[in-house]
Structure formats: C-alpha cells, structure tokens
Automatic annotation (TrEMBL):
Sequence ranges assigned to domain Aldehyde dehydrogenase in this UniProt record: 14-473
Protein name from the UniProt record: Aldehyde dehydrogenase
Family per similarity comment: Belongs to the aldehyde dehydrogenase family.
Keywords from the UniProt entry: Oxidoreductase
Underlying gene: aldA
CDD domains recorded: ALDH_LactADH-AldA
Record bears the keyword ATP-binding: no
Catalytic residues as annotated in Swiss-Prot or TrEMBL: 250
Length: 485
C-alpha cells in the first residue's frame, strides 16, 4: 500500500520541505508506515511567521463577526467530513473510533462557540479622576500566535488554539506533533476551502528542534500556546524570555481521585475508569492515582479491578467496540511498563494487567497497582498510560494532603454524598479543576488551567479567549467649550 503524501500549508500554499526531507508516520496499532510529511527547514518556519506577521496587519481590521463567520464555515466542513476525519485520527493516533468521532464533532462545536465570541468579547469604560475625560479599555489582538500541539488530542487542540486566536484578530502558525501530523494537515485542507486570507492560518511540520525552537524564539511571535510536557513548557519559557513573548502552557497532570466511605461506589468506579482509560490513558486530565477511604477500600478495589480487567484492547480501525487502542509509540509502552515493573520491584502488587501483550502494536492493558506508597514513582510521576495506583486513607484531611503532595496540579476529583466534604475538598485541593461525583472532562465554556507545574494561563470560555488579547487603555480628554464651534 502506497504511503499517503502530505504537504505543509504556508501562506495559503501547499509546499514541500526545502530539501525534500520527510518524516514517516506510523499506525500504532500495526506499527506500519502510513504517510510521509515534510520536515520544514528553519527558513520555511521563518517564512511562515513572516507571512503571518504581514497578514495580521490586515486581518485585525476585519470585523470580529466576519472573522467568526470564517470559523463557522470551517466547522460546517468538519461536520460534513466527520467520519473520514475520525478514521484518519484513529489510524494515526490509536484512538478508538467512537472517541475519535466525539473529538471531531466536539471540535466543530468548539469552533462555533468561539466564533460566536466575536460579538461578545468586550472591553470596559471606567471612571476618570479628571473632569471631561473618558477612560476606555480596549481588547486588541496580540499579533502572531504560535500553536504547538501534542499528539493525544491532535484535532481538538487545533480548534482550541486557532479559533480564539483568529476570532480576536491574531494570525497563527501551528506545529503539529510529529506523531500525528496527518489529521492536522487534513484540517488545513478544510480551512483552505473557506478562502481565509493568505497567511492567517499556517501549518508547519517537522521536529521540535527546528520548528518548535523557531516558533519559541522568533521575535515576531507574540504568544506561544503549547500543550505538552513539563519539560517542553520549560524550554518554551526559556526561549520566549529572549523577546518576552506571552506563553500559555497546558502541561502535565497527576490527577488524584478521592473516594470517601459514603460515596456511591459503583458511580466512583465507573467515573474513575472512564477518566483513566479514556484515550488509552493518554490524557492529562485522566485520573492518575486513587485515594480510597479504608472503610470501603476492599469493596471499591474489587470492583475497580474487575472492570479494569474487563477492558478490551485492539486495533481501533478493525474493532470499534473495544475499550482502548494502542499507546502512541514504542517509547510510550516502555515508559509505562518500566514504571509498573519498578513499582513491583519496590513491593507493589499488580491486581490486573501489568504485562504487555505479545504481537504487533504498541498496546498496554488496563492495569491496577496496589500496595504502593505516597513517595513511589508511580504515585508522584505522570504515567500517561492506563495504569491506576490505589492507596488508602483514614480521614479526608489526610486524603487532601496526599492529593496535594505533587508538583503538578491540573485536575482532581472527589466522590462523596456529603456536600460539606465535597466543598471542603474543592476549596483545599491545589488544582485548576475539581470534579465532584463525575469523570474528568472539561466544558468548552469553562476554563481549563493548571496550577503549579501543570501550566500557565489557560483555555476555553471567555477567560481562555482573553489569552489572545492585549488590553489597550485610551484616555480621551474632552473639551466641551469647543463642542459648539
């Protein structure tokens, strides 16, 4: 089968790499090559930035409602192509097809949501200390945005970055992950159909050492929005400091789930499993560690293990009724398995899973690990795979202390019928989001933001939109005596 051949999208044109260099993309379920994409040169990245910089001068003058109308057209094209896009996404990333379909359709809804903000985001008029003066605070675009994407939600995260950027008058250069560039370039094909002005939306493929570095260091970039690892975020911050670019970072997560003795155990088990095996365990929102009160630990763990053990895995293209697909690559499997094996060597017990299946594909089973300690690597470091360490606690305060004992602080959850306990935990947990009696997944109208090393800034809702604007204060001194002249 011939490999699909893709081109980059720069200034409204389809281009190959300067030197013809390409990288190969693999299907993680079969380990087979499926496509080739260009590896951009530093010159091409600079060219994309320059084109976006030039285009932004005109784009910012387009009425926000008109900018939003372009987004609505893109959202409509996404819906028209949703089945095809979901298949490409599943083949490239290993996401099960039902979840891939949700991602595609949710992205269209998200773009529509942000398009509507073109008529609603606003500034302020405040009182002046001086007579005959108005003070206006206007929200104006920053300029050129850089969107640096991960591989785990490679379609939705385009929407999350480009839609608020464009509707507020910025232009953008997007770098997809080298593991999942196909779906990004398919997105570019749809965007090309709506006749956006050249340079407003650009997709440049290639390694982070070339594309990511130039996007982070180029002085014409006004804001860098990265979703990725903590280490990647630190590198971007260091690079951006050279020209004081704004950074918006969504980084790692180590989400704790607290299960109290009065919780609905069946609900807690299902919600925790849903937020662990979602996207094959490769999601920063995922529950990464469980704290269950001693009184119900046996019942909870028994039910958790039974359901985790029943989670089926396979090639998502061939089997749409499975619970999980493969991890993204061989390195991911080795990382996850290494963490589990080191935990076992330190005294932990594998209650289910914990062993990579034989055969092709980068699969890892749903795994529960017990008899772990708070200080263990499995409890402290992000796993990013379908593995759940389970610990116990006596009091809620103890559980909150253990939950907060982390350098990361993206999401958390608590399961209890006591709303006083829920409210206390929600006020004390050191995370950007806390979910009460439900699985971990955010709303587009909320605000997705991490604390500690989980990030800076945030996304979604009106507050996420404001990541892409500067505040311009205008002092207008009036002279009433001249008004009648």
């Amino acid at each position: 089968m011939a490999l699909k051949q893709y081109q980059m999208y720069i200034n409204g044109e389809w281009v190959d790499a300067d030197d013809g260099k390409k990288s190969t993309v693999y299907n993680p379920a079969t380990e087979e090559a499926i496509s080739q994409v260009p590896s951009a040169s530093s010159r091409q990245v600079k060219e994309a930035i320059d084109d976006a910089y030039t285009a932004q001068k005109s784009w910012k003058r387009v009425p926000a409602a008109t900018r939003g109308a372009y987004l609505v057209k893109i959202a409509a094209l996404i819906r028209q192509n949703s089945d095809r896009l979901a298949h490409i996404l599943s083949e490239e990333e290993g996401k099960i097809v039902p979840l891939a379909t949700v991602e595609v359709n949710f992205s269209a809804d998200y773009i529509d949501y942000m398009a509507a903000q073109g008529r609603t985001y606003e500034g302020e008029v405040i009182q002046s200390d001086n007579a005959n003066e108005n003070i206006a605070l206007l929200k104006q675009p920053i300029g050129v945005a850089a969107g640096i994407l991960p591989w785990n939600f490679p379609f939705f995260l385009i929407a999350r970055k480009f839609a608020p950027a464009l509707v507020t008058g910025n232009t953008i250069v997007i770098k997809p992950s080298s593991d999942t560039p196909n779906i990004a370039l398919e997105f570019a094909k749809l965007a090309d159909q709506v006749a956006l002005p050249k340079g407003v939306l650009n997709f440049v493929t290639g390694p982070g050492s070339v594309v990511g570095s130039e996007l982070s260091q180029n002085e014409k970039i006004g804001i860098i929005s990265l979703t990725g690892s903590v280490d990647s975020g630190k590198r971007v911050m260091a690079d951006a400091s050279g020209h004081i670019a704004k950074v918006s970072l969504e980084l790692g997560g180590k989400a704790p789930a607290i299960v109290c003795k009065d919780a609905d155990i069946d609900l807690a088990v299902q919600a925790i499993i849903d937020s662990r095996i979602d996207n094959n365990g490769e999601l920063c929102n995922n529950c990464e560690r469980v704290y269950v009160q001693e009184d119900v630990a046996d019942e909870f763990t028994k039910k958790l293990v039974a359901k985790m053990a029943a989670t089926s895995i396979g090639d998502p293209i061939k089997h749409e009724d499975i619970g999980m697909g493969p991890l993204i690559n061989q390195a991911a499997v080795e990382k996850v398995d290494g963490m589990v094996q080191r935990a076992v060597q330190a005294g932990a017990k594998v209650a289910c899973g914990g062993k990579r299946p034989e055969g092709k594909g980068w699969f890892y089973p749903a795994t529960v690990v017990t008899n772990v300690k708070q200080s263990d690597e499995l409890v402290q470091e992000e796993i990013f795979g379908p593995v759940l360490p389970v610990l116990t606690f006596k009091t809620l305060n103890q559980a909150i202390d253990m939950a907060n004992d982390s350098k990361l602080g993206l999401t958390s959850s608590i399961f209890t019928e006591n709303m006083d306990a829920a409210a206390s935990a929600a006020n004390e947990l050191e995370d950007g989001e806390t979910y009460i009696n439900r699985y971990n997944f955010e709303a587009m109208q909320g605000f997705h933001a991490g604390w500690k090393e989980s990030g800076l800034g945030g996304a979604d809702g009106k507050h996420g939109l404001e990541e892409y604007v500067n505040t311009h204060v205008i002092y207008l001194q009036r002279h009433p005596e001249k008004a009648d002249q």
